[in-house]
Amino acid sequence: MRTSTSGRVGQYAALLAYLVFLAFPFLWLVSTAFKSPRELGSLHPTWIPRYPTLDNFRQAFDEQPLLRAAGNSLLAALAAAAIAVLIATPLAYVMARHRTRLAKAATGWVVVSQAFPLVLVIIPLFLVLKNLRLINSLVGLVMVYVVWALPFALWMLVGYVRAVPTELEEAAAVDGAGRLRTLVSVTAPLLAPGIVATALFAFITAWNEFFFALVLLKTADKQTLPVVLTHFIGAEGVADLGPLAAAAFLATLPSLAIFAIIQRRITGGMLTGAVKS
Prior knowledge:
The structure is a single chain. This protein starts with a helix and ends in a 5-residue tail after the last helix. The protein is mainly alpha-helical. Helix 4 (66-97) runs parallel beside helix 7. Helix content is 77%, strand content 0%. The chain is built from 12 helices and no strands.
């Protein structure tokens, strides 16, 4: 009993330490965003600003087109997430239900493809988009984001499809439901948590992506938010810390808001997916 209690205390302590580790950068970012230039230059920094100010936010919007950049990022991220899910869902179903050698090889290739560094694929992608005349285009950037997110999205959804009992589909077939009706009425509702989680992953990946956007987007009116954030760093590498922190804080809000909205849908869908045998 003592061993069980001490083990549980150790687990909670480890979880608390991990949460502190994750929360520290964000809390420090929020604190920095509301500090005055005098406090930012202080030799004795504090967690809570002594004299909170919104000047950093006003300066950030005055110096850089944050709203336009956020609109570009939002458009690219939403489009990439939607397209990746639409493509990955039927493919994942086929790979999970028909475990042929080709499906196993495709699954292995999906896992291996995640090990490729960005530098390895950027030149071929650049040449392909150049031939398609999609350089400096949000359409081309969305295509790249879909290609980059699709393998992991497919891998995630395959696991969700395999978790759906095949007996449910067989029972629907016995009741006279066709393949399409079975997929829409039986399988799809149970896959909803996985689809939502996959879409969230694809959205956050595209929203935070920097390298592809930096290489493929040339003009200021097409640049995404992560690229625009680098403009707060001067030519000599000196960062305008206050406005940069304010802009970075605003850039994290959409991901946090979307996760807060749909996290109940994810957990709720997992519970409603339980069935009686």
